[in-house]
Amino acid sequence: METFKIFTVNPGSTSTKIALFEGGKELFSGNVSHDARKLAEYATISDQFAYRKETIDTLLIENKISLDQVDAFVGRGGGLLAMDGGTYEIDDLVLDHATRGANGVQHPAMLGPQIAYEYAKSYHAKAFVVNPPDVDELQDLARMTGIKGVYRVIHLHALNLKETAIRHAASLGRKYEDCNFIVCHIGGGISVSAHRNGKMIDGFDIVGGEGPMAPTRCGSISVADLLKYAQDKDLKDLRSLCTKNGGFVNHTGISDALELTNRAKEGDKYAEMLWNTMVYQITKCIGSMAAALHGKLDGILLGGGMVYNEDLVAQIKEACEWIAPVTAYPGEFEMEAMASGAVRVLSGEEEVKKYSGVCNFTGFDF
């Protein structure tokens, strides 16, 4: 069986994670920190490209890591329009959309395709993105809202959600495409999603404020209550409640779940209520996804950094294990997920997809 060497790039707000894999084994990984003051010098995310790549090159040289025999470079696929899940080859259209942020979201993940493509060009290798952030496989019934012309979209941790499901299916001796799961990513942001036969058919728009409260996100609230709250607020500040200044931060100024739980253990009733409320909302969202799957489930899967917390896992099991077995996968598989997607394509297990540059849903014909 042929062994492939894969290099993965995952840019974040103030750092860029990189990893080199061969035959499924991690040969090297690094987290390149970037000076926030230096990043502030650039007008746009894409303007950071040369600086970020230079810092990666420096780290590789310092650690004597050669990319000469790499078969494929994979970048986190920010900036792209909504599409089905899968592995996409980075072509001129992907590069253009990532560079300008065609989806309207300015996020460092836009640099993933750009950096991967540049390395692939230099080393005459393939370049891919795997399950980009804007994966949208919603079933039709999940799209309609009570406002004409306004349709639901989802923004979730698609890369880690799908990799967790793929791995769990394999542990059952089955394929992801033959299973039904509820998959959660529970970290700084919280994604709860329903997966049916290899498609993520429902979930929440966690960038738009849907879903459970999270350390930095407000989660779903009444529209009427929000309008009342918004009367003397700036629109920009309101939007930040969805991704930066909601949740634990809004209540206590704390974004670290560990610090909050430590306060709760020390007798802080406010912190305890916030923690338990978040877990309660996660379990309610799991229940809604169970209904979307008509109760036909092969498992409830929990991934993300907060899953290291035993109390969180215990509460979810107590509330939800009557629906299906609950399995915890603490941490995340983002780097491994990108490498695995490339290997599936290179080995012929999965067909590479071509990015259309058109949203896979533009409205109904009525």
UniProtKB/TrEMBL annotation:
UniProt key word Nucleotidyltransferase: no
Xref: Pfam families: Acetate_kinase
Coiled-coil portions: none
PANTHER family: ACETATE KINASE, ACETATE KINASE-RELATED
Cell location: Cytoplasm
UniProt gene name: buk
Molecular-function GO term, any one: acetate kinase activity
Presence of the UniProt keyword Nucleotide-binding in the record: yes
Protein's recorded name: Probable butyrate kinase
UniProt keywords, alphabetically: ATP-binding, Cytoplasm, Kinase, Nucleotide-binding, Transferase
Family to which this protein belongs: Belongs to the acetokinase family.
Enzyme Commission identifier(s): 2.7.2.7
Alphabetical list of CDD domains matching this protein: ASKHA_NBD_BK
GO biological process, one term: acetate metabolic process
Catalytic reaction annotation: butanoate + ATP = butanoyl phosphate + ADP
GO cellular component labels: cytoplasm
UniProt xrefs under NCBIfam families: butyr_kinase, PRK03011.1-5
